Amino acid sequence: MPGPDLLSSQGLRLDGRRPNELRRIRCKLGVFTQPDGSAYLEQGNTKVLAAVYGPHQVRRFRKSSAEGVVVNCQYSMATFSTGERKNRPRGDRKSQEMSMHLRQALTAAIKTEMYPRSQIDIYVEVLQADGGAYCASVNASTLALIDAGIPLKAYVCSCSASMAWLDGVPEPLLDVGHVEEAAGGVTLTVASLPSTGSIALLELSHRLHSDYFDTVLSRAMQGCRDIEVILDKAVRDHLAEGWTKQDVITI
After folding, report:
1. Can you list the GO cellular component terms from the UniProt entry (predicted)?
2. pTM of this prediction?
3. What CA–CA distance (Å, rounded) separates 19 from 244?
């Protein structure tokens, strides 16, 4: 059954984007000096900071920590991140769920076997939430891990997709924003390693007919591949900037 009206008669979305268009992504590595790695990322109006500490000696020894690194993730939202002030920006059920999902996606990319009896701490703070906070958090955390020099199997990127109808014809939407989420349509969130084609996390907000699932998933996976290109360019630009500064100091 057709969902909420998310496309205009011209085929444009509520924020003016085309169905297959990402929100604008801006990102920067090394925004803090105290952590081992850090990154700031904007995906549309959603703004996220990520910081990485470690690897360091595991605080509480567990049998699993002897086999590989323990990945600890903490997701939180600033009290001013949304229009409604949050009384508990961290530690609530939603934050705990997001922390668990972050850990699942990032652990899939980290070469955990290289750091036995060690721990990596990843802290994510959402400064402004305008839809796709989890996706932006995964993407920012990937950059922070790279900035910290943590070996990864591949980039782990996250993107969402939804479904809309134009003149009765289904049209998948890429990178769902807050207005589209609030409209009540289905949102499929994917975290994947685009270079390998593997999926680290997949979550549906509502029921989606099986006839449309593959189409929406394909659109989300394409978004992950597009985001990987953007993140990779940011990393290369950051490295090039570092080499340029080193050359200046040497001269």
Report:
1. cytoplasmic exosome (RNase complex); nuclear exosome (RNase complex); nucleolus
2. 0.90
3. 39
Which phi and psi angles does 130 have, rounded to 5°? -140, 40
Distance (Å, rounded) from C-alpha 88 to C-alpha 76? 9
Phi-psi region of 70 (alpha: psi -120 to 50; beta: other; left: phi over 0): beta
Our measurement of the distance from residue 70's CA atom to the centroid of its chain's CA atoms, rounded to an integer in Å, reads 20
Alpha-carbon distances of 157 from 149, 160, 193, 212, 224, rounded to whole Å: 17, 11, 6, 22, 5
Domain ranges in the chain are 25-247
pLDDT for position 31: 96
Q: Torsion-angle region of residue 132: left (phi > 0), alpha (psi -120 to 50) or beta?
A: left
Question: pLDDT tens across 128-176, in order?
Answer: 999 999 999 999 999 999 999 999 999 999 999 998 888 778 899 999 9
Q: Give the CATH number of domain 25-247; options: 2.30.30.100, 3.40.50.150, 3.30.430.20, 3.30.230.70.
A: 3.30.230.70
Alpha-carbon torsion angle 83, 89, 92, 94, nearest 10? 50
| In 71-132, alpha helices (H) | 93-109
